[in-house]
Amino acid sequence: TGRYVWAGGSCCVYEGGWKRGARHGHGRTLWPSGAVYEGDYSAGFMDGEGTYVAGPCTSTTSSSSSSSYKGQWKLDRKHGHGRQTYPNGDTFEGSWVQGQMEGHGRYTWADGNSYVGTMRNGTMFGKGVLTWSATGDSFQGNWLDGAMHGYGLYTWEDGGCYLGTWTRGFKDGKGTFYPKSCRVPAAHQLYIDDLRNRGVLPDDISTNVLQQQRTSSSSFDTNQEPAAAPADLKKSWRNLSFERPPVKKPSLQRRWSIGVAIDKIIGAHEPSGAGSEPQTQQGSDQNMAGCSSLPILEREYAQGVLISEVVLNKSCLEDSSKKLSRRQSRAAKDVKRPGEMIIKGHRSYDLMLCLQLGISRYTVGKITPIQRREVQASDFGPKASFWMNFPTKGTRLTPAHRAVDFKWKDYCPVVFRNLREMFKLDTADYMISISGSDALRELSSPGKSGSMFFLSQDDRFMIKTLRKSEVQVLLRMLRDYYRHVHTYDNTLVTKFFGLHRVKPSSGQKFRFVVMGNMFCTELRIHQRFDLKGSSLGRSTDKVKIDENTTLKDLDLNYSFYLEPSWRDALLK
């Protein structure tokens, strides 16, 4: 044993065992920053059991003075089982590989939320259970790069649960919803148990698993917190220099209103007047409590959007199955797809062809094959635009087409490409939806701006023409919009997928933006509202009102119930 002080005024000191001129055995190292390690060494490396406590924390966002790791080491890296504490109060206890959280472990956030399951490269990956302490909700299922991905079971505190599939954090595909206080049928419970037995769903994970992983640790004890945060979620399109927590918490799932959802597809049990108030949450709960068998619903989602819903057990509903079937069929026949199909001879036919060609052959066709890169400052602004000529006879880069000669201009293509990836929009789906074999539909403008509106054939995308001044406003706000979407995965703001311009060889310029259609659903929509937060001229002539009428602010006479946690998040 001995004591060694490094020269050059570094004040780095080691006290402990030595072997052949290298630190070996038990020892203690003190760095000038105040960081200290006490534990095992081998051939000069931290190797074995040991505890590292960082020096004073310089982060302005943390009230803690330091951070710590206690566990196993290999070649100066965390390797094996260990416990890490972070300056913000988060902790992780579990398996480490080459300095990264890898394998089974428990991550606990400072607010009490916890994840128990497998990790990869510092993110939730594989099978695991995440529990929200504030609400009591939990999700047990599969994860990919920190997001729910694959089969899973989401359970609410009141006992309701949803069993289905997720794609990168969004419900996607078919699933089954069991409302609160509803006993899961034996056949369905056997199915869930079988999924666990086959490894599709994780077992009920408990802290005993962590206890089995633990081995003897160093006698040096500490309750301090770590020097550096663990790796952020490994999302290649999100490696910007925005400040983020150590491990990103997944977004809370929205709580759908059972009554409203059922009414939309089969109609309310009792008719109500146009001006009647909707049932309050308390009244709805009382009605459902009196029902001996609450409805179990089969739901289908498309990237988080509910598109269809079917009642599996109709025993608690007042109508017979035949009446319900007739009512659903009648409602389906009454649904009229909005807009006018754009066919040859239509006033907007050439404009539609130009738009489809530009998106398929340039916006998607040319930009997508280019290797993806991070957004830079030069990618924003009016100068970050590119154009291409589309003559009718075609060129080496463009195909021959039946529209007029036109020039296509793409604004900030790299930014919008990354935005489409942030919104988890598949490139092929985007191109087929807008530029597929089916024509777009033109909507009559419900506003006073005089803008033209187009709807994709699958109703997923809305295309709106803009004035030059509106394009300039959107370009100025694009940087802040990008930062907002990057920071808030579950944002409710309008989704912008592209900003373009078409200039026919003889004619005016058309500027337009591609947006997500929030009304993309197979459920029957009874009323539509255009809300601007104003009362001046914000009412609709009552004589013209029907199911397809767009109503305004003063026509809205409903009270809406917002789930408390979502209300708090909205007010923040």
From TrEMBL:
Domain PIPK: 347-572
Keywords, alphabetical: ATP-binding, Kinase, Nucleotide-binding, Repeat, Transferase
Keyword Transferase annotated: yes
PROSITE patterns reported for this sequence: PIPK (PS51455)
SUPFAM superfamilies reported for this sequence: Histone H3 K4-specific methyltransferase SET7/9 N-terminal domain, SAICAR synthase-like
Compositional bias ranges of the Polar residues kind: 211-225, 277-290
Region of interest (Disordered), ranges: 211-234, 269-290
One GO MF term: 1-phosphatidylinositol-4-phosphate 5-kinase activity
Name this polypeptide is given: 1-phosphatidylinositol-4-phosphate 5-kinase
Species: Aegilops tauschii subsp. strangulata (Goatgrass)
